[in-house]
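hey so i finally got around to running the thing on that chain from the lab meeting. sorry it took forever, my laptop kept dying and i had to restart like 3 times. anyway pasting the input first so we r on the same page abt which one it is
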Amino acid sequence: MVPRQRALIGAAVSRPCTLVVCRGCCCGDARKHPGYDHDWQLERLMAAASGSGGAFQVRTTDCLGPCDQANVVVVQPSAAGRRAGGRATWVGFAMDDDCTEEILQWAAAGGPGVAAPPVTLELQFVKPPRDARVRSRR
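ok and heres what got predicted. didnt touch it at all, straight out
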C-alpha cells in the first residue's frame, strides 16, 4: 500500500520557517523580567528575518500559555521541514543573547525537519500547553 500524501496548495508549498514570538502577559514584560531589553530581542529577530532572503519569518502573538517559562518562542517548520517530519518546537526561557542567536541560526539553516537544532538550545525546549497540542491535531 502506498502512503497517502497531502497536496499542498498556495503559500503552503513554499512557507518558510516561522518564529512565533510570544508577547502576551508575561513574555516581553519588563516588570516580570527587569533588566532585559525585550524590544531589542524582537528587533533583532525581525532584522535577521528581513535579511534572511526569505529563509524564515517572524511574527508575534498574544500569550502562548507557559508563562512560567517566559520568554517563549515557537519555531515552526517550513513546508519542506514539515514534509520531512519537522514539528513546531517550543523554546522557553528565551531571554539571553546566546539563545536568541541560536534560534536565529537554526531558523536560517531551515529549522525543524531540515536542520538539527543547536545542542544547547535543546536544553531550553519546553512542552506546549495541553490545549495547544490538542489544537494542533485538528
